[in-house]
């Protein structure tokens, strides 16, 4: 499990690839949002994570920047979405359309790899959190280094409207570095641009 420290907040993240139950995760999130009473609260707690389609993450810094932006938005009372975990998805999307952000960057029926992220104010037992994440996702937990195998560079180029610029960048390594820099900058500048 990776952790990111931001002043008083800590974000924990696991990468799962492959994921066997993306449709069930998506439906569970939808059902938890609609559920009422103590059962609803329990179910919301069970899926109280950001489920991020890993194919759209260019690097560790890209993910870390989105998490940081969500933490800043929450600390300033400026969340544009309902939770800090959905705010991460909003931060990743290059446009300001919340529905589009959740549809693109969140778990979908076709997600093959997922980052599962949880943000806390005070760290608790990591093993308990890791077990909750593993219970929510039927998949194989892999190291962050595996991200390079699941990133869909063509889809990222499309979402960031970079097809023409990237063609001019030369070899694949240069092109991917350029795309990574654009994606990170897009997340970092999003709150300034609004």
Automatic annotation (TrEMBL):
Cite the Gene3D superfamilies for this sequence.
Answer: CGI121/TPRKB
Pfam families hit by this protein: CGI-121
Report the InterPro entries cross-referenced here: CGI121/TPRKB, CGI121/TPRKB_sf
Output the Gene Ontology cellular-component terms.
Answer: cytosol; EKC/KEOPS complex; nucleus
Q: Which keywords does this chain's UniProt record carry?
A: Kinase, Nucleus, Transferase, tRNA processing
Cellular localization per UniProt: Nucleus
GO BP terms in the entry: tRNA threonylcarbamoyladenosine modification
| GO molecular function terms listed in the Swiss-Prot or TrEMBL record | kinase activity
Task: Extract the coiled-coil ranges from the record.
Answer: none
Q: What is its main location?
A: nucleus
Q: Which family does it belong to?
A: Belongs to the CGI121/TPRKB family.
Biological role: Component of the EKC/KEOPS complex that is required for the formation of a threonylcarbamoyl group on adenosine at position 37 (t(6)A37) in tRNAs that read codons beginning with adenine. The complex is probably involved in the transfer of the threonylcarbamoyl moiety of threonylcarbamoyl-AMP (TC-AMP) to the N6 group of A37. CGI121 acts as an allosteric effector that regulates the t(6)A activity of the complex. The EKC/KEOPS complex also promotes both telomere uncapping and telomere elongation. The complex is required for efficient recruitment of transcriptional coactivators.
Query: By what name is this protein known?
Result: EKC/KEOPS complex subunit CGI121
Highest lineage ranks of the organism? Eukaryota, Fungi, Dikarya, Basidiomycota, Agaricomycotina
